[in-house]
Description:
The structure holds 2 protein chains of 2 kinds. By secondary structure, chain A is an all-alpha fold. Chain A has a domain at 70-226 and 248-271: MetI-like (MetI-like fold). Chain A is built from 13 helices and no strands. Chain A has helices at 2-30, 34-39, 51-57, 60-93, 99-108, 114-127, 135-159, 162-170, 175-186, 188-204, 207-212, 221-231, 236-271. In chain A, helix 1 (2-30) packs across helix 13 (236-271) and helix 3 crosses helix 13 (236-271). The longest helix of chain A has 36 residues, at 236-271. Chain A is globular. The relative contact order of chain A is 0.14. Chain B has 2 domains: 20-71, no CATH class; 98-344, MetI-like fold. Chain B has helices at 2-5, 15-24, 41-79, 98-105, 107-138, 145-153, 160-170, 177-184, 199-224, 228-236, 241-269, 273-278, 290-300, 304-329, and strands at residues 82-83, 93-94. In chain B, helix 3 packs across helix 14 and helix 10 runs antiparallel to helix 11. Chain B is mostly helical. A two-stranded antiparallel ribbon of chain B has the order 1-2. Chains A and B meet through helix 1, helix 2, helix 4, helix 5 and helix 6 of A and helix 2, helix 3, helix 5, helix 6 and helix 7 of B.
Amino acid sequence: MRVKHLWLHLVAIVVGAVIIVPVAFGVLGGFKDNGQLSTDPFGLPDPWVPENYTSILGSSAFWRPMFNSALIAAATVVLLVLVASMAAYIFARFNFRGRELLYTLFAAGLMFPFAVAILPLFVLLRELSLLNSPLGVILPQVAFGLPMTIIILRAFFRTIPGEVEEAAILDGCTPFGFYWRILLPMARPALATVSVLAIVTSWNNFMLPLVVFTDPSWWTLPVGVQQFQGQYASDTARILAYVVLAMLPALAFYSVAERQLVGGLASGATKG
Amino acid sequence: MKTTTQGPEGVPAPPSRRTGTREGGARPGFAPDGPGPRVDGSLRRRRRLDKLTVALFLAPALALFVVLVVGPIVLAMYTSLFKWNGFGGLPEDFVGLDNFRRLLEDEVFIGDLRRGLILVVLSVVVQLPIALGLALLLNQPLRGRAFYRLVFFAPYVLSEVITAVLFTMVFSPSQGLVNQVMSVFGMEGQEWLANPSTVLYALFFVISWKYFGLHMILYLAGRQSIPKELTEAALTDGAGAWQVFRHVTLPLLGPTIRISIFLSIIGAIQLFDMVWVLTGGGPIHASETMAVTMFQYGFRRSEVGYASAISVAMFLISLVFALLYQRFVMRRDIEGAITTMRDKR
């Protein structure tokens, strides 16, 4: 048993190294200058060159995209959770003709690859004058996030016992009152799950901000990283520093929201 | 599988829950499922309020979805019938199905299909078995397994752009990690991303690096939902570890495996960010995907009509694939997960 576990640990460590070594290469590379990167790629930096990191941390080319990404992610989540939970409440708790057809329409949205829509979406957003406006990214992100969010929330809303609703109604609750004051607070774990999924999706979205924002002051982090790479193509060390700094918010978020993320993906996949 | 524990998807909420209070209840806003004993004015009013609630609560989601998800797909179908540079108003130069005829003779597009297929096959043969193996490994009572899981899954939260930029550096010919490691072992380095015969495999490596953790997590969830009694019973009956895997674990993981293959294929169809940043589709189209070809024509060469035809082709491919896959591969698992229509049958 011991020997077997030793082998398992060995496998796990090798796989872990494949994950960590490229990232460590980035972190350490950011502390080197380009000469060191060519001559001594593995060793520790000698001397340590913090300028790559400090100059990026002192520039708006980093903080501005970071702020934009955060703003867009926050707005997307709030709007998405609100709109999707309202629809999920109806799909979970009301009977009406055409309900299953409508629900199927939303659920089928899972099968539309976003790349299919990007070009006509661009044309549409141009006609609506939403290019170079954060709404041009937020609204489509909400629309494309609806299927998964509605599916997960509807399933959760159904697990809340009917007695709760009956009691609320006897106490004089309107449908909206029940949704707002009872259903949403009770659904906090599910809301956390879908919010985490939406934040990660929004934070990492690249294609949409790439075409919507021609104005650099609206670039989000992924677009900023890509443009930075183009701009400093020969300065490998500086790009590594930028990439490492750009990873930090996502990794920090992951470390606090891992449970919701893993749970959400597992339940989302089994339903979708 | 979640769906089995909470009853069939799509079945209306059990009537027993609702009828009791609904008919006797004095509150407006809900309609009873069946005709109640007091079909009078107040009930009719209640029904109207009910409809109003449904309409008001559904309207925002429906509006967003129809305008921004359904709308673009319809628009793409329309513009794919025109020769159009994308500027000003709507297209006028109607060319019928010419764009699609051109598509079928476009070597780059045919190549996209071939490369997509290679990536899918590589995923199913290499990436997913590794993910499955690691999931089973992490299912063992191993010290530190929570930490391993945290590390293995971490790349999934990094954006494709960040991953791609990092690996541009890792694969870089002179300063890159890979070539430097190879030179330590006395091997000749490569221009991994600039060589048409290696670029697709380099791309596959980066995709696997980022996504194997997702599949591993799915398998792990699937494995943990298999009751302990089953594997224990097999073991006491004298089955070896391999037999338990082959005849108990693997069949019960079937639904999860089929979903993970589905996700891989849908992912391959729309693969864009990573390719765009890592290689731009090059060299000489050797790593190009459908989405990259579409983007090139639509946003770089102003051939919006032709690019729309590629979009429509991507849509049809994923639609047909999803329907066939649901119908023939996943039908035993999660009937109604995507379409709940079976309730109407």
